[in-house]
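#lab-general

N.A. 3:47 PM
ok so I finally got the sequence cleaned up, no stray characters, all 255 residues accounted for. can someone with queue access submit it? mine expired

B.Y. 3:52 PM
send it over

N.A. 3:53 PM
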Amino acid sequence: MAATYLVAVPSLADTFPELPHIPTLANYNINEGKAIGDPLDENAAYSAERTVHELESLKRIVPELTHAHLEGAKNRAHMLRAIHATRAVGAGDILVALDEIRRTVDDNHIMLQQIQAAMQQQQAAVQQIQVTMQQQQVILQRNQAMIANIRLMKQNDMVPRDREEFTPLQKTTSGHGRDLAIQASQPEHLHHIPPIAAIQVAEVGTCPPFWNPVTDGYTMRTIFQLIIFYNDDFGIQPADDVEVRRSKFRRWLCS
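B.Y. 4:20 PM
back already:
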């Protein structure tokens, strides 16, 4: 009776369903698997080992190939080599050899899981580092803006009242102040406040692109635009008329 496989040896495509979607691997033996009862293929172990070498070479130019894929290919080649080696021993030793193969497969599966878990932990650590760096960048920008604003406030405080030429302060609070604008508004003025979809959130450290140095010309809509841009209500209350709002904004520019 011809020798057959007593255990299944799945293909790399079965073990890693994502591999067939990598175009570069279309010409490699990733779909070659052995089912229980298939005739023993003398070239299968050699072919699996050759695939390992090919994937190791490809990994340098195919970023989708991971260490887990290479380890899976190596384990598959080891398993086929071990199965073929059982032909050199007596029939009584085959069950022992198969049991050893199964243990090797289990150990390899655990190792693959550990590798994948380690990779996930590394990815989470990288993401956390990126978040921390972004937070530090925001803090740095805010500190730089606050330092610059000290000089700008002093400059604005020296502007003669009859010759308004105020310089804009830099934004120090992240986000937008639409909610603050609503809280500082009377119902009849809500139509001056744009919807959220129309708001482009400015970065910390920037100045309003619509800046007008002459505050006497500010309208109710202008004040709302400034509240939204700076994410600051400047101490404005809903009952304040437009002149009081201008005055409070001027005071904010100088202090």
